[in-house]
Amino acid sequence: MSIFTIIAVVLICVGLLFFLGAAVGIMRFGDFYTRMHAAGKGDTLSSLLVLLGFGVYQLNNFQSFSESWPVLLVILKLIAISAFILLTSPTATHALMDSGWEDGIEPELKNDKPETNALEEDMPQPKQKEAQA
Amino acid sequence: MDRNKTKSSPFYSWLVFGLLMLTWVVFSGFLDAFHLSLGVISCAFVTWISADLLFENRSDGPVARIKQVFRLAGYSVWLVYQIVLANIHLLKLSFIGQRALQPQIVRYECKLKSDFEKFLLANSITLTPGTVTMKIKGDTFYIHAISDVAAEGLDGEMEKRIAKCFES
């Protein structure tokens, strides 16, 4: 076991711990919006850590620059993947939250006080028409 | 004539070509003449049809651009640090359970001007767990925060750092 393997295993295990936290959050949180917090973003740090672990593990194959430059390309590809995740994941979360609001899913808020819902004050939520049937 | 000159400034065309070529080399991994010439042909074609899509504001010179790139790199390091802190907070919340949650929707006024800066701020807010940008209307962001601690994190430091990246 080289030092790189050990670092990689530690990074991947910490990443998996955060994934577990996200999964537990999806099961335990109360409403659509708080579940979106766990589902959409519990994976930002964890996927970063797992990909970083893969990158560190690749360093095992690195001997000299002239022979093993393809290893560096693999690491660059992993960095590109994490950049794409960091760009697209928040956008998808935002789109789902926004369409949930537009479809009239009511958020469960702290103490049900009106001042905790600034959005309702400024732009009342479109209520679903019930008498359509 | 003047408009034409700013539109097709050669620096930005070469920059787009260089970035595309770099991506090609990283993703292909073959450095022989055949694959490289394929890359040159396709990158030149893409640059020819869509070089004006990548950069909206072309009034900045090369030096200002390079400064922005380095500042953005510094910003993303800080952002990763914030993500680590906030993810630990979310991990605690999910193991304590629902009674620890104080969900709320808060207003946030920002003073950033360009669309790209607003996009960066909204994405950064969503990336740090505990807060999600729900709607943006003009300069007002509506943010769903999962707890009081997460809502207090929106103290404008992120916005200040983003504004600093793009000042000239």
Summarize, please.
The complex is a heterodimer of chains A (133) and B (168). With 133 residues, chain A is mainly alpha-helical.
Your description of this structure?
The complex is a heterodimer of chains A (133) and B (168). Chain A is elongated, with a radius of gyration of 21 Å. With 133 residues, chain A is an all-alpha fold. Chain A has helices at residues 3-28, 32-58, 69-102, 118-122. Chain A has one domain (3-121). Chain B has 168 residues and is mainly α. Chain B has 2 domains: 2-50, no CATH class; 62-166, Ribosomal Protein S8, Chain: A, domain 1. In chain B, helix 2 crosses helix 3 and helix 4 runs antiparallel to helix 7 (157-166). Chain A binds chain B through residues 17-18, 21-22, 24-25, 28-31, 33-34, 36-38, 40-42, 44-46, 48, 70, 73, 76-77, 80, 86-87, 89-91, 93-94, 97-98, 101, 107-110, 116-120, 122-123, and chain B through 26-27, 29, 80, 83-84, 87, 90-91, 93-95, 97-98, 101-107, 122-123, 126-127, 129-130, 132-135, 137, 140, 142, 144, 146.
Features:
heterodimer; A: 133 residues; mainly alpha; 4 helices; 69% helix; elongated; B: 168 residues; Ribosomal Protein S8, Chain: A, domain 1; 2 domains; three-stranded antiparallel beta sheet; 3 strands
Class derived from helix and strand content of chain A:
mainly alpha
Looking across the biggest beta sheet of chain B, what order are the strands in? 1-3-2
Distance between the termini of chain A: 67 Å
Radius of gyration over C-alpha positions of chain A, nearest whole angstrom: 21 Å
Please describe the biggest sheet of chain A, giving its number of strands, its sense, and whether it closes into a barrel: none
* Helix fraction bin of chain B: 55-70%
